[in-house]
Each structure stands twice: as C-alpha cells, then as structure tokens.
C-alpha cells in the first residue's frame, strides 16, 4: 500500500520508560519552536526607520531585500484541512486513517494521517500522538517518511507526510513477492542509515517491522510510524515493554521480567534482522505470537537457536547472525559495524545515501499497492466521512451555539478536547525550509539595493530537498 497505517493487535506498550515521562516531555512538547512562535516565514525583524523600509519596498531595492522586508510584516497563514484536496482512502487503524491528498496551491501529493480526538482520549492514545508529533517535527532523513504539516480541527488531529507509492513490505509479503538477497541487503543498508540517524537524535523507534517500511516508486525503503518511539538522552536506558512481540529484542522481555538496566538502541537492529529473515524465507526466525506470555519468551531465546536456509549465501548468513545475536553487546548496532562487515564490503555507502543504488525489486507503477476496500469503506460505511467534514463541522457549530453550556453531557471529555486544542503544535516544514533558504541568502548593501533594478521571480518559490550530506551520516559517523 502507499502509506498503510496499522495499529497491530500484538503491538504492546506499557508505561515506565525512562525518557517517556509525560511530565518531562510535556514541558517541551507543546512549546512551538522559535520559528513557529514568530510565524513561519518571518526571517528577520524590521530594522531602521519605517520610511527606509517603505523606500526599499517601493523602489529599486533588490528582490531579496524586498522579499525579506515583506515577509517580516506579513502575518503567517496557517495550513489547515481546507488547503488539501482529498483524493482517496488508503489505510486505517484502530483510531485513525490515511488518505492521499493534494495541496491545492502547490499541487504536491502527500499522505494524510488523521486521528479522531475523542477516540484517542478514550483509548488513552493522546500522549503517543503528541510524542510522535514531537519527534517528527525535529527529524528529517532520506530513508524516513518525513512530516510536512500538522494541524487540527474540532474532530481530528492531522499529520501530512511523504507519499510513498510503492506499498509497505508487509503488503508485498502477502502478495508472495520473492525478495532476492541483493534486495534484502539493500533494505538492511538503507535501514542502517535511518537507524544511525535516529541514534544521533537520541531516538529508539521500537517498532521496526515490514508493516512500517514503505517503498517509494523506485523501490527504496523508508521507515515510518513513530507512535511508540521514545527519546533517551546519554546514559539513559528504556525499560517499557513496547513494540510488536515477534520483532521485539530479547533484552526488552528480559528487562520487563527480571528488571536490570533496561535496553537501548540495539533493539531496533534486532528488529531489522527479524525483518530481513522474514523477507528472505517467508516466516520469522522465532515462532512468536501476540498471545505468548512474556516469561515464556525469555526462556525461548535462551533455548532455541535460529535456523538459516542452506541456500543462502555465507555472507548473508553471517550478516543475519550478527543482527540476530541475543546478547546486545555483541550485536551489530551501528553504522560502523555494518560498514566493517566483510559481507557488506562491496556496498557504496555514498551512492546508497543518494539513492543511486538501483533496487532489485521495483513496485509495479501501474497499480496502487494497498487494499482497495479502504476507499469503499470510507465512502459507504464510515459514519463521519472525511469528504463531508466541512458541512458536518458547520452543522455542529450551529448546534453548539444554540445549546446551553450548562447542559454539557460530558464535562471531562470536553476538558480533554479543550486541552488537546490548546496543546497541539501546528507545524509547517515548507515554510521553515523557505525561511531557512531566505535567511541563507546574503543581503546586499543599501547602496547596491538602491541601484538594483527590480526583477520578477522566474519561477514559483519552492523549498528544495536537502542534499545527502545534510541528512545522511558520513562513512565515519556514529
């Protein structure tokens, strides 16, 4: 599917993780970045007398100077639901859905994930949604599904992210795609770059699995769904039982049952090993299901060894053994480990980072890689379809205006909804990029500005994609 959103029944998350504290995160999560607080697009404060500003704007000032001064005086326009055209539904979860949208002004295509506020409150998922937003607003990488916009209305919270048209790896497994060793090796390396970047940002994903790895049209892998990710600082360790059981590392179960020092970034690399094994063989290295007791899984990892297919190359088996090492201290868990591996000696990491390595599996461009019933359910069975939201909200506002506030049926729910409305952080990566681009352009001297001839923009101003060097680690990074 394109951006298939899943909340698996076997994914578990319990409180108690160091760095997951709502109190600690809450102190900063709801405070917008400085650029957002001042209004995206505001890159400088007007300086000098007003007459000088007006003269530069109306006469021969340079295009850059006029644009900067205009931006400083123009209030920001916040992105909202009306700025997007809904095209079709492509996925759903227990309390949210995903659809393809097109931004009306730029005509760019995105995937929009939207979560019903009341359902999030009832399922105690608000904290996870806010944590995911906090993380996504601070990161960007070529092998992640990146956040572009976040906003809300009375009913829903919205995240607008990269649209990937190649489907997720779970979908392709269900379609009986036979992945070659070279293809799986490429996915492992691309996830290694993504995980290395996340580690530099102090982030443990905790839910790496085929369902959360999406392919673009060329076949490159991108990691998504930070709903149960966590942030840990230097010296901290995570302790919560969080993840999808068949892909969770042994130390997560051990920490939950026996206590101890907890776990760290190594758990995501174990998950990559499980995912790679499953892609090659069609089933996972351990027979683990959501119904398995945690205590039994601790015993399982100490008694059962992984069986590797005799048809696999020695290099692939060696790589999987290092990823599926039960002891995290001996497991491959960094980019340096991967680059030093003899089985990956031929990998051109710089080319890989720039997506110059051609994937062995390219999704069929002539079809949409998701379940087509999602669109039918949205149009026929959904009680609050997205395409009727504007009319529905207008009717609700009219009804609320005529209702006596003292007759509120659920004061607690309304208090929670009000808290979400107040604390939700609006985000606009497009404006942030535009501000950064403008700020990086040198301003000419006043004399040069007076002498310059006005020039019209030759094309619409759009944010450029970051170069590989700014988002991928170098060969020697950690």
UniProtKB/TrEMBL annotation:
ATP binds at residue 113. CDD domains: STKc_Yank1 (cd05578). The keyword Cell division does not apply. Residues 84-344 form the Protein kinase domain. Keywords: ATP-binding, Kinase, Magnesium, Metal-binding, Nucleotide-binding, Phosphoprotein, Serine/threonine-protein kinase, Transferase. It catalyses: L-threonyl-[protein] + ATP = O-phospho-L-threonyl-[protein] + ADP + H(+); L-seryl-[protein] + ATP = O-phospho-L-seryl-[protein] + ADP + H(+). Its cofactor is Mg(2+). InterPro entries: Kinase-like_dom_sf, Prot_kinase_dom, Protein_kinase_ATP_BS, Ser/Thr_kinase_AS. GO terms for molecular function: ATP binding; G protein-coupled receptor binding; G protein-coupled receptor kinase activity; metal ion binding. Residues 387-396 have a biased composition (Basic residues). Its EC number is 2.7.11.1. It comes from the Eukaryota. The keyword ATP-binding applies. One of its GO terms (biological process) is G protein-coupled receptor signaling pathway. Gene3D superfamilies: Phosphorylase Kinase, domain 1, Transferase(Phosphotransferase) domain 1. Residues 387-410, 436-478 are annotated as: Disordered. Belongs to the protein kinase superfamily. This is Serine/threonine-protein kinase 32C. It comes from Sciurus carolinensis.
């Amino acid at each position: 599917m394109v951006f298939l959103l899943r909340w698996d029944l076997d994914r578990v998350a319990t409180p108690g993780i160091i760095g997951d504290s709502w109190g600690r995160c809450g102190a900063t999560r709801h405070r917008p970045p400085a650029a957002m607080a001042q209004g995206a697009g505001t890159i400088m404060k007007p300086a000098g007398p007003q007459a000088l500003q007006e003269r530069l704007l109306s006469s021969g000032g340079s295009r850059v100077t006029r644009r900067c001064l205009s931006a400083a005086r123009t209030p920001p326009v916040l992105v909202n639901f009306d700025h997007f055209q809904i095209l079709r539904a492509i996925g759903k979860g227990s309390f949210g859905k995903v659809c393809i949208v097109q931004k009306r002004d730029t005509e760019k295509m995105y995937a929009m994930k939207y979560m019903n506020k009341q359902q999030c409150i009832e399922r105690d998922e608000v904290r996870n949604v806010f944590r995911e937003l906090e993380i996504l607003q601070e990161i960007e990488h070529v092998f992640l599904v990146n956040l572009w916009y976040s906003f809300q209305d009375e009913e829903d919270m919205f995240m607008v992210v990269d649209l990937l048209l190649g489907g997720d790896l779970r979908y392709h497994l269900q379609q009986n795609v036979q992945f070659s060793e070279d293809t799986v090796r490429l996915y492992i390396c691309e996830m290694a770059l993504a995980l290395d970047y996340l580690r530099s940002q102090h982030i443990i994903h905790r839910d790496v699995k085929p369902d959360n790895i999406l392919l673009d049209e060329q076949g490159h892998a991108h990691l998504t769904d930070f709903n149960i990710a966590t942030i840990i600082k230097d010296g901290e360790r995570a302790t919560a039982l969080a993840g999808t059981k068949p892909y969770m590392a042994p130390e997560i179960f051990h920490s939950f049952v026996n206590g101890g020092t907890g776990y760290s970034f190594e758990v995501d690399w174990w998950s990559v090993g499980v995912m790679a094994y499953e892609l090659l063989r069609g089933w996972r290295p351990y027979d683990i299901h959501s119904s398995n007791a945690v205590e039994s899984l601790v015993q399982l990892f100490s008694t059962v060894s992984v069986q590797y297919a005799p048809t696999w190359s020695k290099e692939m088996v060696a790589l999987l053994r290092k990823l599926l090492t039960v002891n995290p201290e001996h497991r491959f868990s960094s980019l340096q480990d991967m680059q030093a591996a003899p089985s990956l000696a031929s990998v051109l990491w710089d080319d890989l980072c720039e997506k110059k390595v051609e994937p062995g599996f390219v999704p069929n461009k002539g079809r949409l890689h998701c379940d087509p019933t999602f669109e039918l359910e949205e149009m026929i069975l959904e009680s609050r379809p997205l395409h009727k939201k504007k009319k529905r909200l207008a009717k609700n506002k009219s009804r609320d205006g005529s209702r006596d506030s003292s007759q509120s049926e659920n004061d607690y729910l309304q208090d929670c909804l009000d808290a979400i409305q107040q604390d939700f952080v609006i985000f606009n990566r497009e404006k942030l990029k535009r501000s950064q681009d403008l700020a990086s352009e040198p301003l000419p001297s006043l004399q040069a500005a007076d002498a310059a001839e006005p020039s019209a923009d030759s094309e619409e101003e759009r944010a450029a994609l970051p170069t590989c060097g700014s988002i991928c680690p170098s060969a020697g990074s950690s």
